[in-house]
Specification:
25% of the residues lie in helices and 24% in strands. The chain has 3 helices and 4 strands. The longest helix is centred in the middle third of the chain and has 12 residues. The radius of gyration is 19 Å and the shape is globular.
């Protein structure tokens, strides 16, 4: 007769994937924003894939005061968290540099 020992597993090991407990490869930046931060959602046209998301995120991340950027190609939305409101011209220039078009701010 052989005995088997099962070790308890942490909750993060039993659900989701190696990326996160929720199974997402993206972090939930909205839960980690600091007090006084400004969150703005922009509409960007032309993004079709993860590479597009990365290009837009990288360019916007270079704007002074930006603390977090999350681009979603399927919706065309780019959520930006910053220390203070951003100059729309600076965001437009960053999106243009990435090769896409800023359609506006989501109301």
């Amino acid at each position: 007769m052989s005995a088997q020992t099962e070790l308890p597993q942490a909750a993060s090991e039993t659900t989701g994937s190696c990326c996160s407990p929720s199974g997402s490869c993206h972090s939930d930046d909205t839960a980690q924003t600091s007090q006084g931060a400004v969150t703005t959602v922009y509409e960007v046209t032309g993004m079709t894939c993860g590479h597009c998301e990365g290009a837009v995120s990288a360019e916007i991340s270079e704007i002074a005061g930006v603390t977090s950027v999350k681009a979603v190609a399927s919706t065309g939305q780019v959520t930006v968290v910053s220390e203070a409101p951003l100059d729309e011209a600076a965001v437009r220039a960053a999106v243009d540099e990435a090769g896409y078009e800023l359609a506006g701010v989501k109301a």
